[in-house]
């Protein structure tokens, strides 16, 4: 039965999709099978309902060849490891098993020259690392490997919360959520697929960091809104902003959903403001980066609306105006500094 | 009472020490005091017995000014956080508290624009990040921040082992130990202090990765040998290679110490071989990197021999010849590939 639709979101950003998601996805499924990672029917069915290749083709519409295949393969692998190791499965609440597994995966990513251990995930990560190193600049490969490290660390953090029976505060979640959504490595994968790279100097500049972080939070909120009903059913709301806000404020799920949409739209307005500024001031690679962020944010929503994984039924219409359009910082310590980067007219 | 001396190690590498360790260390202690991190006598006494400024001045003898001060300040902070949060203290066996703390520290490192939360460690890390960003190239700052992430992830992994009551295997430890010894961020700090940077392209090249990893393992083994008696007393041998080898092989502590020295010397011979190769083939920045690795390895040992922290008594003499000088891979999966990088004559 389809779940209740997600409230309409404000998202005036362009969207495109690479046309080859069918064959790319079939190759990714075959790739997973080669590592023995699709051996049971449940996992196979979950991947079918998740459409990772569509996600890849929406967030990297300008990708080509081996690079785009890598985005799709990583995305397939990410969903399988989430569903069978990180978020569910026998070791998801055993940090003493899960974190050492992730540590072994890091070795495969950093040094694919070493043989993989017996774990099929280690073998798959090793394969991705060898392919990335064969085709991409060292700086992108390094960012991608470190992006995986960031993802693993956030998984460790959420597992620790799960075992301790604690919920992150909203302040914590604003930092933790986008890392858990593997946003940094996703950005590197897109660069790897599309072949245009933002330099470290541009990337570390405060306004660029702020606009990128805002995009990453928008993707996180979008994901969390669409997966909320499923994650509430599965009782894993420590990694869902709707659950975190409801835990903080009390009240109904509907009230927490409405607060979440307000936060989404307010961050969207900030994103649009910073984006316009950088579009005027920035180098051509910064402008290219902004286009990638647009596709990431809107592409993720387009995928979320349609994908059977979340069972949210028909597409939510887009809102014409933001639920909260104030151009002022929301009094949330980890992100208020983003608004300081806005030039006041 | 002084503990038994560590067996003699083979280490034919040069050593130098920056002459300003006295004033640099006094400034670091004042810096820690400003953040309220030296409020109790036990911590103050531990830091005095640890001589972090001497370590900094030995591993970065060519450092200058603000950069070298940063190395010393980070080193002081690292020892205090190890002694009061990561390896001992009330949350060292509570991953649900410890990992979220480290996650908040990551935010301070990545985005010093946001106010620090109430934790004094967060405020100190934020201060370091702001200073690093003011004085160093973005690529170095990024590597340093990610080096901290790598360190935190390994602390999470060791905490998980501690709580689960498991020991890492030797295979796991060869990957985990150097990360826990914060080796990557140490390398970035040295670059930051000395002002010469290895490019990502050079850094990701397999031979350069192998020689750097070998240096990092040598530092780890050196540390573990000198801290073994102390860590055996404290019952925290999950992060000590002597304990890991003894757990694998059984037998006496003396036998495990001897095996560890053999591994050290065998890796040292490999290091010398790869080093000679790269000294011939490499760019001037690669050669500069090799000199830094020399100082790191030997400087760490010189400090270990003298520092009251480990109470190992008088200096161990250096061995004239390696305890194991075979130029063949030791059949240890994560590191055997290093020997593949050796040119056969």
UniProtKB/TrEMBL annotation, chains A, B:
<protein>
    <submittedName>
        <fullName>Metal-binding protein, terpene synthase family</fullName>
    </submittedName>
</protein>
<dbReference type="InterPro" id="IPR008949">
    <property type="entry name" value="Isoprenoid_synthase_dom_sf"/>
</dbReference>
<dbReference type="Pfam" id="PF19086">
    <property type="entry name" value="Terpene_syn_C_2"/>
</dbReference>
């Amino acid at each position: 039965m389809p779940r209740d639709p997600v409230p309409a979101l404000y998202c005036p950003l362009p969207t495109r999709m690479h046309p080859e998601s069918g064959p790319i996805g079939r190759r990714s499924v075959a790739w997973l099978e080669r590592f023995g990672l699709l051996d049971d029917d449940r996992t196979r069915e979950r991947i079918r309902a998740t459409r990772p290749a569509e996600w890849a083709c929406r967030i990297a519409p300008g990708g080509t060849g081996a690079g785009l295949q890598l985005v799709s393969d990583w995305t397939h692998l990410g969903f399988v490891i989430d569903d069978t190791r990180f978020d569910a499965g026998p070791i998801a609440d055993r940090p003493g098993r899960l974190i050492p597994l992730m540590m072994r995966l890091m070795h495969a990513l950093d040094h694919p020259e070493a043989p993989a251990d017996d774990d099929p995930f280690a073998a798959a990560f090793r394969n991705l690392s060898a392919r990335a190193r064969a085709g991409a600049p060292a700086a992108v490969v390094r960012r991608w490997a470190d992006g995986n490290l960031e993802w693993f660390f956030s998984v460790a953090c959420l597992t620790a919360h799960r075992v301790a029976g604690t919920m992150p505060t909203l302040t914590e979640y604003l930092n933790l959520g986008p890392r858990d959504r593997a946003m940094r490595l996703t950005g590197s994968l897109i660069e790897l697929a599309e072949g245009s790279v933002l330099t470290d100097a541009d990337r570390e500049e405060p306004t660029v960091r702020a606009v990128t972080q805002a995009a990453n939070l928008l993707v996180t909120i979008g994901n969390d809104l669409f997966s909320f009903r499923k994650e509430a059913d599965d009782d894993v709301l420590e990694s869902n902003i709707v659950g975190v806000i409801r835990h903080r404020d009390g009240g109904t799920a509907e009230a927490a959903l409405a607060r979440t949409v307000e936060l989404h739209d307010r961050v969207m307005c900030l994103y649009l403001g910073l984006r316009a500024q950088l579009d005027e001031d920035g180098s051509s690679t910064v402008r290219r980066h902004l286009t990638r962020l647009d596709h990431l944010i809107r592409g993720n929503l387009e995928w979320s609306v349609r994908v059977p994984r979340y069972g949210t039924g028909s597409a939510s219409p887009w809102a014409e105006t933001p639920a909260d359009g104030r151009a002022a910082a929301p009094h949330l310590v980890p992100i208020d500094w983003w608004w300081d980067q806005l030039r006041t007219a």
